[in-house]
Amino acid sequence: MDRAARALARTVLADVARRRSAGGAPPRVRFAGSLASDGLSGTGRVRPARRSRAVGRAAQGVRVVLLVGPGNNGGDTLFAGAHLATAGARVTAFLVAGTVHGPGLAALEAAGAEVIARSELRVPAVVEHVSAADVVLDGLVGIGARGALRPPSGGIVRALVEARAAAEVAGSPWPWVVAVDTPSGIGVDDGSVPGPVLAADRTVTFGAYKPGLLLPPAAHLAGAVEVADVGLRREHGPQVAGTLRLQDGEVSAVLRAPGVRDHKYTRGVVGVVAGTDKYPGAGVLATAGAVRAGAGMVRALGPAGVTDRILDRHPEVVTAGGRVQSWVLGPGIPSDGSDAGQDRRVYGALAAVTGVLDAEVTGGVVPAVIDAGAMAMLEHRLPEIAVLTPHAGELADLMRGLGHEVGRADIEAEPVRWARAAQRATGATVLLKGAVTVVVGSGVTFTQADAPAWLATAGAGDVLSGILGALLAARAGDVLADPALTSRIAAAAAVLHGRAATLASAGGPTTASAVADAVPRVMAGLLAG
Ligand SMILES: NC(=O)C1=CN([C@@H]2O[C@H](COP(=O)(O)OP(=O)(O)OC[C@H]3O[C@@H](n4cnc5c(N)ncnc54)[C@H](O)[C@@H]3O)[C@@H](O)[C@H]2O)[C@@H](O)CC1
Ligand SMILES: Nc1ncnc2c1ncn2[C@@H]1O[C@H](COP(=O)(O)OP(=O)(O)O)[C@@H](O)[C@H]1O
Ligand SMILES: [K+]
Predict the structure, then answer these.
(1) What gap in Å lies between CA 506 and CA 515, rounded to an integer?
(2) 217: cis peptide before it, omega within 30°?
(3) Measured from the CB, is residue 197 less than 6 Å from ligand 1?
(4) Is the CB of residue 223 below 6 angstroms from any atom belonging to ligand 1?
(5) Where is AMP bound in this sequence (predicted)?
(6) Quick check: helix, strand or coil at residue 178?
(7) Of ligand 2's atoms, which has the minimum distance to the CA of residue 38?
(8) 239 pairs with which residues across the strands?
(9) Residue nearest to atom 22 of ligand 2 (CA)
(10) CATH number of 2-238
(11) Given the CA of residue 153, which atom of ligand 1 is nearest to it?
């Protein structure tokens, strides 16, 4: 606990110092600056623990409020508060439990902090203190919590969430919120948000990542996550039970750079069945993703109105049929049956993926990306080498088609649960798109948050399907030998896509075409690093 509290205090002091030197201002948050460039409070900004030292009275004059719960999480918070008080901070602790960690409380009192006992605690006073503070430490509950926060914690946090929203509307500053181990009230193991949670700008988590810090929607409330070394075994990358966020080295290991013996067919041919006269752009964008992500060749199949446009933008594309090592099916093909030719091509390709038609006819079983309209055309159980790429609305449609009464909001509230349900129901690998993209196959669940919110732009998903198609084609033999590799490749595609969006956006708006154009630079960087 001592190591945890010291690490926590060090991080708070480093944050205070950084914010002071950035603006000369106190470390309070102006809303525009408190959010990450993606508009979420720092999703995916996973950073290693910092090791600055608490020197002298580094926190002189900083107003710190501690929200202290009954367990060890409150204990960590009390000890950290004592360090901060010793460093000169004006610390006020609100005890939301009748009994709190005794030695922690003694340390805090010895350091001269103000302590408000549970019996004296009034919600308006908490709100008032928090609103005037520079830093708040949320130490109500940590990994010991179950379910939504109970009273009085729940009421206090609900009032603070409302006060934060009002401050945002009014343009008033709000304190820098540091969650101790986890934002209190998140579903630590499943990333759910069962009740009110105070959004953190920073989470200092102890020893290892907790699933809820990586999984949406709770991940959106964690801010920048820092793992403090408290003497437990350090994990390689943010891996927690059954959940993994790919690191750069793991992404580059998935990519396949060509060697001297390669030619265009060995590098992988991607067959793209995307775009209709109604939505030709989706065909162009899915193709762009595949071309830019290094396909040896792309075969784009569709009506002339689509393939002509594809050729205008990508003259290297072949518009005749033939063998492929992966399929990209469905972008820009509506599920209303309005383009019989494209529907027929999708059904034919799906027959190849599922193996229901003879290899003599189909050219053999190959991996596939099944997006948009093609997701409404599934007639057979899919193999793991098929990747469904829905957003939340499409996954809701898919699951309703399978007999589950579920809407988009339900999927957004429990994305991992529903992605897993879809994986079980269809047999396919499922890549659920969103600010945090979740990939579920037969093994671990990948959760990637590599993109700015600027990526939420029309056609971005089409580009992702093409990128994934190219990566699957490049590793088609490996994927067929080990289908569990599919989800890792899908997660790597999400990373490439997100990084390309970051590069193309540079902090401002971007387009799906620009995201595709940025992919080669991102791949080069990853392969070099
Ligand atoms: N190896 C470890 O386990 C370490 C644990 N540490 C700290 O210990 C914490 C876990 O401590 P505890 O197991 O004491 O648990 P917590 O402090 O997370 O919470 C347990 C207390 O909260 C109450 N509670 C549970 N669910 C609640 C809800 N929904 N609403 C309101 N109150 C609720 C319980 O009645 C119990 O009194 C970690 O989060 C971390 O801060 C650190 O000191 C580092 C090492
Ligand atoms: N808030 C967000 N932050 C980061 N990325 C996002 C956000 N919202 C959506 N995305 C990403 O943008 C892409 C949108 O794809 P999709 O919804 O299929 O759009 P379209 O069908 O127009 O191509 C997905 O890769 C998704 O993960
Ligand atoms: K907490």
Answers:
(1) 11
(2) yes
(3) no
(4) no
(5) 433-437, 461
(6) strand
(7) 3
(8) 244
(9) 458
(10) 3.40.50.10260
(11) 31
- pTM value is 0.79
CA of 69 to the centre of ligand 3 (A): 8
453-471 CB burial, b ≥16 within 10 A, e <16: bbbbbebbbbbbbbbbbbb
148 annotated ligand-binding residue: yes
H/E element, 180: strand 176-180
Would you give the end-to-end CA distance of the chain in angstroms? 37
2-238 and 248-528 share one CATH topology? no
Q: For position 1, what pLDDT does the model report?
A: 85
Rounded CA-CA distance 278/286 in Å is 15
d(CA 451, CA 467): 15
Residue of 329, 455, 505 to test ligand 2 pocket, by largest number of atoms within 8 Å of CB: 455
pLDDT at 147: 95
Q: Please, are residues 266 and 342 in contact by the beta-carbon 8 Å criterion?
A: no
Alpha carbons 82 and 216: distance in angstroms, whole number: 33
289 is in an annotated binding site: no
CB of 144 shorter than 6 A to ligand 1? yes
Average of per-residue pLDDT values in the chain: 90
Q: Does 391 count as an annotated binding residue?
A: yes
Identify which ligand lies nearest to the alpha carbon of 185.
1
Compute the average pLDDT of residues 383-398: 97
113 annotated to bind ligand:
no
pLDDT tens profile 71-81: 999 999 999 99
CA 520 – ligand 2 centroid, Å:
20
Say which ligand is closest to the CA of 179: 3
Please, are residues 188 and 71 in contact by the beta-carbon 8 Å criterion? no
Domain ranges within the chain, ordered by starting residue: 2-238, 248-528
CATH pick for 248-528 out of 3.40.50.300, 3.10.180.10, 3.40.1190.20, 1.10.10.10: 3.40.1190.20
What residues are in contact with ligand 2 under a 6 Å CB criterion? 38, 391, 433-435, 437, 451, 453, 455-456, 458-462, 464, 497
ipTM: 0.83
Strand partners, 431: 439
Rounded to whole angstroms, the Cα distance separating 47 from 321 reads: 47
Q: Going by C-beta distance under 8 Å and a sequence separation of 6 or more, which residues neighbour residue 112?
A: 85
Beta strands in 198-344 (DSSP E): 202-206, 224-228, 239-240, 243-244, 269-273, 297-301, 326-329
Q: Are strands 239-240 and 243-244 parallel, antiparallel or unpaired?
A: antiparallel
Structure confidence at residue 399 (pLDDT): 96
